[in-house]
Structure formats: C-alpha cells, structure tokens
UniProtKB/TrEMBL annotation, chain A:
GO molecular function: DNA binding; phosphorelay response regulator activity
Record's protein name: DNA-binding response regulator
Species the sequence originates in: Polaribacter glomeratus
Residue span, Response regulatory domain: 2-114
InterPro entries: CheY-like_superfamily (IPR011006), LytR-like (IPR046947), LytTR_DNA-bd_dom (IPR007492), Sig_transdc_resp-reg_receiver (IPR001789)
Domain HTH LytTR-type: 135-233
UniProtKB/TrEMBL annotation, chain B:
GO-annotated molecular function: protein kinase activity
Positions carrying Phosphohistidine: H55
Domain of life: Bacteria
Alphabetical keyword list: Kinase, Phosphoprotein, Transferase
Domain HPt: 16-107
Keyword Transferase appears in the UniProt entry: yes
Species for this entry: Polaribacter glomeratus
Biological process terms in GO annotation: phosphorelay signal transduction system
Record's protein name: Histidine kinase
C-alpha cells in the first residue's frame, strides 16, 4: 500500500516511518509537516493510506479530512483520545492510534487497512468484469455479435425484444428480464416494464419520458427516482 | 520523581542500533527548540501557542517513559485550553523539561 505521513512533529513522523519499515506491505511515498501541503500531493498521486495527526497548528487533521473529495483510507495517529468518536463518523477512517504507538497495535491497524483494501479491489474487479463489451444473439440460427455500447434502446414486443443499435435493429426471441441480466448496471437501466435504455445515450428528459435518438421512451413513476439518481445533474 | 528512559525507543528499534541512534538524534535535535518555543509562548502569554507547545512536548514525555509527567501535562494542556495557567502544573511541567534536558546530555 502506498502511504503518506502527515504530522507537524518530526519525532512522530520518524516513529511512524520506523513502524512502516517494519511492515513489508507499506511503501512511504512522502512525509508532510502540515496537511495543506499534502492536499496538492493527493491531487497528483495515488495514495492508499494516510497516517494523519489530528492536533496540528492552523489546520488540524479533522479540518483536512473534510476537504477530501475521494479520500483514501486514513489512520489517525494522535495523543488525544477525545476525537475518536468524531473520527469514526467517517467510513474511510480505519483506525485511531494513540501515541506513543507500539508495533503490535500498529500491525493490527495495518491488517484492518489491508482487509479494507482487499474488499475495495474485489469490488473494482467485479465492476470491471461487469463491463463486458459485447454479447451474442441468436437470429435465424446465426449468432450475431452486438457491441453493448452501440445499443441505445431495448424494447419488449410480446415474445420478442427489439434491440436498437446505432446502425441496425435486431429482433430476438427473448425477454427483457433475460437480457437485463446480461447488461452492465453501469450503462443500462430499465425505465419501464417494456423498455431498457442506455443511460449514456439520453438526449433529454421531459416529465415522464426520455428522448433517446428519435425514440420517445416512457418512464414509469417507480423507475424515475433511479433514473434521476444516475444523471449527473448540475 | 520518575526518570526518563529509552525503553520505548529500544522496543521500537528492535535491536537495530542505527534506528535507535536516529530516534535519539531526532529527540535531541527537536526537544531544545520545542522547549525554547514553549518559554517564548509563555512569555507572551499566548494560551493557544502554549497549549500547542505543551501538546507537542508531552509526546516526548511518553516516548521517554514519563507516564506520570505525561498525565500531568495532559491536565496542564486541558487547563490552558480553558485559558487557565495553573502555577503548580506549570512548575511540574518545567521540572520535567529540566529532567529531560539533563537526561539528553547523558545519551
């Protein structure tokens, strides 16, 4: 795990660095005497874990975490037990180590951080595997490959579904439920019992309908909140 | 009065003399400046700065195994936050500073 250390006290930084060197999975990228310097570094570098002091002049560790948009995991290293309750309100806080930090307690915190890192990796891998690029449909005994990103709309038509792509429509003997299972959630959304849309292809939304290409697709009341959640609204 | 010791530093160094030497060097370099800053803040009666100085220095107390002095420094720091400068607490704190200063000359 790539980590940084933020502490205004040199002795505290040296102690954390010494402890990090005794744990093989940790790679210290940089040390900072104040949190403001670290913000710039975080904008330009990938960091998995921050060892962060709380009590620092002018800009405290708690002020710092409030500025982070996509915070990495954080382990507080502090002499003050009184901020523990507040600290654990943030889900990216892994642990709260009281100074002077001893190796067994430090190792315990790292095991916790590694477990969280593993979970994060598994989630990312799962999401990536969901993002397959294509699938095959059986039309008149021919298996035809359809690029997922080219699909803008899938419409239910009795025992068939009509898959509309950028350049062609495919009528396939299947159901919306079956095809929905094959589609990545990140790209497609069922907006009505008869329609699945590619959310990236939406042109506009008006009341209870969505314009995709030249198709006006109804949006059922129950699916509208999920659709609105997916939009990057200003 | 309790005496400073290197038990924590030795535990951290795990038998590596170079690590032990680095840790001792850092404490020897950093402590005099922190002590100086504390007395300057005290002179200007700047409670926030005195509190910050005490907060930083008390970590050195715990590193040098001065558990009782650390607890007293905690109380001193807490009172400073309330803008109370307790003379007994100040005296105890400064006695510990002196004890550390003398100890650092011996290591």
């Amino acid at each position: 795990m790539n980590c940084i250390i933020i502490d205004d006290e040199q002795m505290a930084r040296v102690i954390v660095r010494t402890l990090c060197n005794q744990v093989t999975s940790l790679n210290i990228l940089q040390e900072f005497t104040n949190a403001i310097e670290a913000i710039k570094f975080l904008n330009e570098n990938h960091v998995d874990l921050i060892f962060l002091d709380i009590h620092m002049p002018n800009f405290s560790g708690l002020d710092f975490i409030k500025t982070l948009k996509d915070p990495p995991k954080i382990i507080f290293t502090t002499s003050d037990p009184k901020f523990a309750m507040e600290a654990f309100e943030y889900d990216f806080i892994v642990d709260y180590l009281l100074k002077p930090i001893e190796l067994p307690r430090f190792e315990k915190a790292i095991v916790k951080a590694e477990k969280l890192q593993l979970i994060k990796t598994e989630i990312t891998t799962k999401k990536d595997s969901e993002l397959k690029n294509d699938f095959y449909v059986n039309i008149d005994r021919r298996l035809i490959k359809i690029d997922l990103s080219s699909i803008y709309l899938i419409e239910a038509k009795g025992d068939y579904i009509n898959i509309k792509t950028e350049d062609k429509n495919y009528v396939v003997h299947s159901t919306l439920k079956k095809i929905e299972e094959k589609l990545p959630d990140s790209l497609f959304l069922k907006v009505h019992r008869s329609y699945i849309i590619n959310v990236k292809k939406i042109i506009d939304i008006e009341d209870n309908s969505v314009l995709i290409k030249k198709d006006v697709v109804p949006v059922s009341r129950s699916n509208r909140p999920e659709l609105m959640k997916r939009l990057d609204l200003l | 009065m309790e005496k400073p010791n290197l038990l924590y530093i030795e535990q951290l160094a795990r038998g590596d003399d170079s690590i032990k030497a680095t840790l001792i060097d850092v404490i020897k370099n950093e402590f005099p400046d922190e002590k100086k800053e504390y007395y300057q803040s005290l002179k200007s009666k700047d409670f926030k700065r005195i509190e910050d100085n005490v907060h930083r220095i008390k970590h050195k107390f715990s590193i040098l195994g001065l558990e009782k002095s650390y607890n007293k420094a905690n109380a001193f720091e807490h009172n400073l936050r309330e803008h109370i400068l307790n003379l007994k607490e100040e005296q105890d704190f400064e006695e510990t500073l002196l004890s550390i200063t003398e100890y650092l000359k011996t290591i």
